Amino acid sequence: MDQIIPTLYAEARAMSGQLSAWRRDLHRRPEPSYEERETAAYIESALRTMDIPFRRVGETAVLASLRFARPGRPVAMRADMDALRVQEAVAREYGSQVPGVMHACGHDGHVACLLGAAALLSRHRQQLAGQVNLLFQPAEEMGGGAHELMAAGALEGVERIFGLHCAPDLPAGTVGLTPGLNNASVDHFTIRVKGRSSHVSAPQQGIDALYIASHIVVALQSLVTRMTSPVQPLLIGVGTLHAGTTYNALAESAVLEGTTRAVSVESRRWAKEKVDETARTVAALYGGSAEILWEDFGAPLINDPAATAEAARVANEMLGPGHVVSDRSLSMSGDNFADYLLCVPGVYAYLGTSCQADPCTQESIHSTSFDLDESALPVGAALGAGCAARWLKAETL
After folding, report:
1. What is the mean pLDDT of residues 201-220?
2. I need a labelling partner for 147 at 20 to 30 A (CA). Which of 33, 38, 82, 295 fits?
3. Inter-axis angle of helices 4-14 and 107-122, to 10 degrees?
4. Euclidean distance between CA atoms 361 and 168, whole angstroms
């Protein structure tokens, strides 16, 4: 056994108070995607106390590089930092002080874990070789941040990347590590339907964009139920539909927004093509037209088998047998950590954060009551630091 792994975990448990303090400070002052200015400044202040060089990428991303005593293999670690535009429903001492914004996805915990991993590794600068790039990424909830950091050189020369996400379906003290496919791709579409307004008493004089949009919604649902295999998951969902200006006139325009979720490059491409074709065909059938706009939020997230096995060994050395869950179900939620994995082998771990005694820690992510068991924070910090240290120390794996 490499003694540095249990050492890192013991040191992480000893700094549990600091990890909770970081997480709670961030929880009180959540910021939504592309607005994480206070969060970035807070991270930079913490890195400054650790004497870890950093630079700002764009307005809110932070890229830091921790270099060790000798040249060696570079690795990267990532934490997302944006919050959600939801109102926290439970009063807490560390509750959100920003109306309508909350860390309901655990990104405050992710940042605390990465700061903790940085602090742990910085204590062992003389024992390790190479460097660790620390990626504090904005706008994950909007599918952003990753490409900006990669364009800034965050993965230059990097041979491994590590990330994690809170998992309220797993108890604190456990880690979910599954090789291969973990999460679906995520893409966002906007369909703008153009019709022609008229009085409702003379529908033949107009083209009802609301009627067209309604048929598009139904047709999109039919794509999944009648044109795809039931054993290969694919989702097409419509979340918003806005149309019309008054009760007694045909809507001149309509806008609907939705998302596709796929588990392969081929099905992702098929879904996009079919959404485009369906919207245009249905609109033309009723005399209107449709424009479709796409935003790519993230590819299917596929863990590298070797990197996953390395992380499992680290977790077993830290926590002992029986604490690694390797058969966690595929999630149709996404994370653009997947875009890093298209460039560098790595692993995306699920950090158990639920506690039987606290129902809020068992709420699903994005719930207005979501919370996490902070005893998980030392596990997350030590797991990230341990994976990096194991790679940095290895000559061959």
Report:
1. 97
2. 38
3. 120
4. 6
Mean pLDDT of 132-157: 96
For the stretch 316-338, pLDDT in tens is: 999 999 999 998 888 888 899 99
Best CA proximity match to 228, nearest among 181, 257, 263, 258: 263
Point out which residues pair with 75 in neighbouring strands.
132, 160
The residue extents of the domains of the chain are 4-182+300-393, 185-298
Q: CA end-to-end span of the chain, whole Å? A: 14
Tokens representing 201 are: 């008493």
Distance CA 160, CA 391 (A): 8
Domain 4-182+300-393 CATH (choose: 1.10.600.10, 3.40.630.10, 3.30.565.10, 1.10.3720.10): 3.40.630.10
How many whole angstroms separate alpha carbon 146 and alpha carbon 336? 7
Which residue in 300, 308, 347 sits closest to 165, CA to CA?
347
Q: For 73, what's the count of Cα atoms within 13 Å in the CB-facing half-sphere?
A: 15
Q: CA 335 to CA 300: how far, in whole Å?
A: 8
Distance between CA 143 and CA 39 in Å, rounded? 18
Residue 367 CB contacts under 8 Å (≥ 6 apart), including other chains: 104
> How far, in whole angstroms, is CA 62 from its chain's centroid?
17
CATH level 3 topology of 185-298 = Alpha-Beta Plaits (3.30.70)
Query: Residue 40, SS3?
Result: helix
